[in-house]
Amino acid sequence: MTTHTTRAQRARPDDDPRALVLPRSAAFRWSAIITTAFVGLTAVAGGIALVVGVDAELFAPATSVLADTVFRSFVVPGLLLAVIVGGTHLLAAILAVRRSRWTVLAVAAAAFVLLVWIFVETAMIPWSLLQAVYFAVGLLEVGVVLTGLGLLSDGGRR
């Protein structure tokens, strides 16, 4: 006699090989929380500074850097930075804090968003050290995801 399992019988995510599962490593969880919260909070703060028009070279470059772009002010880029970059990172941080099974996917998406943001930004405005720092953080987030998935391990047991 053949037995079949139903979805009700496979209620736990560990029983379903297709289910997304949060890596059990505390290092993954805390790395995900720290990197995504850092980027999320600074992206929201930076986006607000751009929208409000803070008059400090540290927070907002001169609008003259936008001369060869489609933008005439930093309002739209600031909103995109705060909502898209900051929002995806804060969502990933919240999911990591809550130990959601969607954390790995959220961190991967947030890293992708950050890296695309930096690529586009460097193509549109002059390069800055801050762009290099956030590019490195985006690569770090990719490394966190790959390590959490076990793709950067030496194959040994944890």
Protein described:
The structure is a single chain. The protein is mainly alpha-helical and 158 residues long. Helix content is 58%, strand content 0%. The chain contains four helices and no strands. It has helices at 26-52, 75-97, 103-124, 129-148. Helix 1 (26-52) runs antiparallel to helix 2 and helix 3 packs antiparallel against helix 4 (129-148). The model has no long low-confidence stretch (mean pLDDT 84).
Q: What can be said about this structure in brief?
A:
This protein is mainly α and 158 residues long.
Q: Pairing-aware structural class of the strands and helices?
A: mainly alpha
Number of strands: 0
Helices, by number, come to: 4
Q: What ranges have pLDDT less than 50 throughout 5 or more consecutive residues?
A: none
**Radius of gyration from CA coordinates:** 20 Å
Major sheet: none
Order of helices and strands: HHHH
Please give the share of residues in helix.
55-70%
Q: Roughly what fraction of the amino acids lie in strands?
A: under 5%
